[in-house]
């Protein structure tokens, strides 16, 4: 069946959030981070966050649809053009503390008031254990360089392995090549090979032992991947 990619509207974002929860339901990190799954409060909070970034940042969101049913979203991708203004030279712990402070300030601002989430629905300790290593790497690859950052790429489970992920990824790659921008992303283990196939190189890795929070889990690896501008020239 033929698929197409179109820009998302603001009203599409709640559906995109639902697709993200569906696509990541079996992801061990998400299972530990959100032990009760995508509760209504969590989905409302995530939708609010997506809508806030959509309105206030250089964010691009695209949806994949079946041409015979263009009103049904099958997958989506979201990326942000980062202007290279991350905190420079900060170690992971300091950067994380500053980021948390900035997020707290934003939360207290009238312009950013996300819905509350019950403590039992979000295990923030696992996220805080994972974040410093990731922030340190982000500083290395994003500070001082205008970069296209892939934030999300998710496909409904019943439509995976039909080329939709590649179709959505190529939308990002084509945009990056047109603008001569490098690309950065943090990959789940499942998507690693797809990104490699399209010119992304694994440049680092962040490991966390999920067994500290859930006995039947083990080491979870987040692959840090980067696509240089030279890859665009290779396609020409």
Question: Would you kindly provide a written description of the structure presented here, covering whatever features stand out?
Answer:
With 236 residues, the chain is of the alpha+beta class. It contains eight helices and seven strands. A seven-stranded mixed beta sheet has the order 1-2-3-4-5-7-6, sandwiched between helices. A hairpin with a 2-residue loop joins strand 2 and strand 3. Helix 1 crosses helix 3 and helix 4 packs across helix 5. It is globular and about 45 Å long. 27% of the residues are buried. About 10% of the residues have low confidence.
The major beta sheet can be summarized as: 7 strands, mixed
The N- and C-terminal alpha carbons lie at a distance of 29 Å
Q: How do the SSEs run, as a string of H and E?
A: EHHHEEHHEHEHEEH
Percent range of helical residues: 40-55%
Spans of at least 5 consecutive residues with low confidence: 87-110
Number-wise, the strands total: 7
Spatial strand arrangement across the major sheet: 1-2-3-4-5-7-6
Radius of gyration, in angstroms, nearest whole number: 18 Å
Mean pLDDT: 86
The general outline is globular
Judged by helices, strands and strand pairing, the structural class is alpha+beta
Strand fraction: 25-35%
Count of discrete alpha- or pi-helical segments spanning 4 or more residues: 8
């Amino acid at each position: 069946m033929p698929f197409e990619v179109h820009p998302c509207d603001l009203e599409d974002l709640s559906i995109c959030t639902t697709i993200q929860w569906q696509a990541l339901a079996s992801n061990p990190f998400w299972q530990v981070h959100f032990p009760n799954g995508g509760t209504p409060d969590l989905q409302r909070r995530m939708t609010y966050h997506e809508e806030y970034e959509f309105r206030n940042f250089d964010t691009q969101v695209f949806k994949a649809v079946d041409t015979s049913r263009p009103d049904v979203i099958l997958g989506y991708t979201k990326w942000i053009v980062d202007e290279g203004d991350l905190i420079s030279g900060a170690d992971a712990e300091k950067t994380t503390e500053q980021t948390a402070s900035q997020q707290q300030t934003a939360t207290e601002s009238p312009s950013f008031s996300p819905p509350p989430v019950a403590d039992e629905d979000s295990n923030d300790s696992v996220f805080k254990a994972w974040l410093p290593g990731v922030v340190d790497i982000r500083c290395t690859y994003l500070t001082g360089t205008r970069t296209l950052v892939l934030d999300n790429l998710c496909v409904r489970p019943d439509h995976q392995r039909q080329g939709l992920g590649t179709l959505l990824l190529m939308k990002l790659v084509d945009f990056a090549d047109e603008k001569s921008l490098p690309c950065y992303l943090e990959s789940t283990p499942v998507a690693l090979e797809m990104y490699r196939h399209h010119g992304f190189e694994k440049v680092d890795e962040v490991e966390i032992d999920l067994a500290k929070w859930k006995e039947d889990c083990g080491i979870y690896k987040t692959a840090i991947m980067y696509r240089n501008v030279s890859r665009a020239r290779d396609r020409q």
